Amino acid sequence: MFRISDLGIDAPSVYKAKKFACRVLKGKGAKSGIRIIYAYFETEDRIELVEIYYKGDKENEDLSRILKHYKR
Asked: Where exactly are the structural domains of the chain?
């Protein structure tokens, strides 16, 4: 897991979970993984799913989507 720290928001903490492989999806190696983006609300001890994407179709998370939800 890696914290996405360049969002300009203090809370919630947003993380990217890597290293999810799927044999059913096409390809092998670096481009065959799934990425999961989630927000962790520490005060509530709650996790909220933000985005799941296939790395072969999309290189990085959608930062504008994250900011739309959590920037206030």
From this structure: 2-70
